[in-house]
Amino acid sequence: MRTQVAIIGAGPAGLMLSHLLARDGIMSIVLESRTRQAIEETIRAGVLEQGTVDLLHELKLADRMEQIGERHGGIEFRFRGRGHRIPMRDLTGGNEVMIYAQHEVIKDLVAARVQQGGEIVFGVSDVQLHDLDTDRPRVSFRRSPEAPTEFIACDFIAGCDGFHGPSRSSIPENVRTEYHKTFPMGWLGILVEAPPSSEELIYCNHDRGFALVSTRSPEVQRMYIQVDAQDDIANWPDERIWSELRSRLATEDGWAPIEGPIIQKSIVGMRSFVCSPMQYGRLFLAGDAAHIVPPTGAKGLNLAVSDARVLAAAIGEFYQDSRTDLLARYSQICLRRVWKAERFSNFMTQLLHRFPEHSAFDREIQLAELDYMTSSVHGLSTIAENYVGLPIEWGT
Ligand code: FAD
Ligand code: DHB
Description:
Layout: E1 5-8, H1 12-23, E2 28-31, H2 36-41, E3 47-48, H3 50-58, H4 63-68, E4 70-72, E5 75-79, E6 82-86, H5 88-91, E7 97-99, H6 102-115, E8 119-121, E9 125-130, E10 138-142, E11 149-153, E12 156-159, E13 177-193, E14 202-205, E15 211-215, E16 220-228, H7 238-249, E17 262-276, E18 279-280, E19 283-285, E20 291-292, H8 300-321, H9 325-328, H10 330-352, H11 360-375, H12 377-388
Parallel strand pairs: 1-2, 1-12, 2-8, 5-14, 12-19
Antiparallel strand pairs: 3-7, 4-7, 5-6, 9-10, 10-11, 13-16, 13-17, 14-15, 15-16, 17-20, 18-19
The protein binds flavin-adenine dinucleotide and 3,4-dihydroxybenzoic acid.
Organism: Alicyclobacillus hesperidum
Keywords: FAD, Flavoprotein
Protein name: 4-hydroxybenzoate 3-monooxygenase
């Protein structure tokens, strides 16, 4: 097989890249280890930045998002039993976020690619990368564990295979630096059959730990609570989850979440991770393959999309003008935005969670920081600007 760009992974990064390349007339093949059904059913993120929303419009992939998604112009921070609204739309000259589940984005991107005749091979195994430091790299794979090995010859390989995929480790250890931070807490996330408890997302700091109220539709809600990173979901019967949500989210004026049957629950760990550089020879990493953020800033999916944008522009420039300037600067352009998202996600995580090592002094400082951030126009603006999404900076 031969193509221009071999894309490993059909997550937001890989699928968005295949669409952006197709728009410029550049061929790609996407290799995905899971089934189409599995990727369309995995419950993950839910917040799309303004730039992600705009890009989906530009690519004419926004119809279902506009039907099912919800635009939010503000979020609430809740602490000491009181809510404080952050009016993002007003503070950013009209920017908003869209609450639209990641697996719905995946469904839209896959359906449109398949309809356009784009090639996505699902259920592949044994994906390996070869000849990265030549201008004819190759990817080998099997269509099933028993099938023979096939090769794709290409000009570029996009490693969009998430944190555990094989791409990153194909960059020799002596040319990459990895930055890690693991948090001592995890998020227990639930999907609930109930009407929305709130018109906007609520990020809540409480003595018992963080809680988040989000939404999926008028009928299904998404909520999270901070738990220990090592905790087991078996320790969390539904009533215990509701009891924590009620305690943490309670306000002076008697607010309580609307309860209903819990239809899905799981615990995810929280880490920060950056691999630098994000490229080696003809291999370019995008999304979780190169970086992870803790979910508090709602940035993971959005970073995957902005990497795909930069990579598509760089590859587009190569084919159109035979230039490699943007390709050479790919990592540098992406990492500038990645580190700012790491910074914001770290800041939100520190601001909103309870940390086992915090002293009474640290706790008061955290509450004072929340008070400052929600009462100063500068504090409010900095949160708003980062939450709706920073621009990509293309210059040097
Ligand atoms: P992925 O979505 O991980 O896609 C990578 C794809 O590559 C996958 O489909 C995988 O099957 C495929 N792949 C892996 N290995 C191979 C291989 N060997 N061969 C072929 N294909 C391969 N972010 C938020 O902002 N908010 C959240 O609430 C949130 N919750 C999350 C919950 C979980 C459990 C996880 C894992 C992540 C969560 N994230 C969240 C992060 C967000 O979902 C990711 O940042 C986003 O999915 C990154 O997109 P991606 O395309 O880079 O990677
Ligand atoms: C959701 C996830 C996040 O990580 C976040 O910060 C806000 C909302 C969600 O799944 O809806």
